[in-house]
Amino acid sequence: MNTADHVLDRLLAQGQDDPYPLYAELRGTAPVHFSPQLGSYVLTRFEDCAYVMKNPALFPAPDPASFASFMPEHSTYDAFRVLVNSIVNANPPQHTRLRRLVSRAFTARRVESLKAGVLTIAGDHVDKVAARSADGAVLDFHDELSVPVPLQVMARLLGLPLENDRLLAGLIPRIINVVDPSSDTAALKDADDALHTLLDLLWELVEQRRAQPADDLVSALVALESDRGVAAADRLTEDELKAVFVALLTAGFETSATAIDIAVHTLLTRPEHRPGLRSYAGALRFVDEVLRWDAPAPMSAGFRYAAEEAVFGEHVVPAGSPVRVLLGAANRDAAANVDPDRFDPARKAPRTLVFGGGVHHCLGMNLARMEIAAVLMAIADRLPGLRFAEEPVRRRSLPLRDFASFKVRLEG
Length: 412
Known about the structure:
The protein has helices at 3-14, 20-29, 46-53, 64-70, 78-84, 94-105, 108-112, 115-132, 141-146, 148-158, 165-176, 185-211, 217-226, 238-251, 253-269, 280-293, 327-330, 365-382; strands at 32-35, 40-43, 139-140, 304-305, 310-312, 315-317, 322-325, 386-388, 393-394, 403-405, 407-410. By secondary structure, it is an alpha+beta fold. It has a four-stranded mixed sheet, with helices on both faces. Strands 3-11-8 form a three-stranded antiparallel sheet. It has a two-stranded antiparallel sheet with strand order 5-6.
């Protein structure tokens, strides 16, 4: 076993509490290497990772048929087909067309118009945490706050009743299981059941908005699908509309919830930064540094492949090879950020790949930052006594820095 394999084994086995020394070891000893465990080349330096993410012609995502060849049983299910055919996995020119259309509906103005509602949603849930733990009760922060806030925000954006957040929280992880290689037949069938339940819910809303449009994202997307007065290239098909809805709900939910957990974990371990959260601008600076310093998704969920031989310094990636980028390592590369292991919300323009790059740059970036900032501001203002009830426990998962347990209580 070479050095890189050994480091990755340690990372997968026990490195989730603090993987950053192991990331640094990989950057120094094997910044570009083939991993038998992951079946792909792994990149760890900032510039190398950015180059892959910003050059989709040289490093395209696998087409649906290639995805299906890796998981042939999974590919027979509707949930699999919807996920792999979404904008998240598309390449130009299909991606260019879909992103152009979706961007017309998912505008900066629409996101900014949600700010007051997001602040209210975050404040309401923080108040619920305060009420439920007033007698010293121990609560799971992830379940009580990190999950419902982004789901209620997405429900508000789409125009769904806010009480649907718990239903969405149950459906989305079940759908995502269809692209988990370890899922058995029962889990795959359950993923399809969850998908059909979700689409039934959404399509009821679609039909309502076709008859009576409102100022929400569903109405805007339906208009792109139903406008027969424009060329076909300027319309979404019904299947594309379904895929867009599912992508919006699945692509950012888990990472947003995990990012809220990490941001609050960072605040509770560094309470000296609480005064900086009194303003929205200060909270956004804290959020941006958290996302750089401890990325919620430290490794790309999917992989790209090298369309031709690629050279990264002295390292060669053969044509046709799968490639994955280790974002958690890249964001702490000293070549990108000075003193990268220091947490500093006052850092000027932190360089990060947490929201992707190039044509695949995350459409929901500003909405996610808004959600996390809103939660931090509400906690700083209303829950000065929030403390860990016990040491949080990370899951042993490389793609996501989530928690198996995040218990909190109020003191004082």
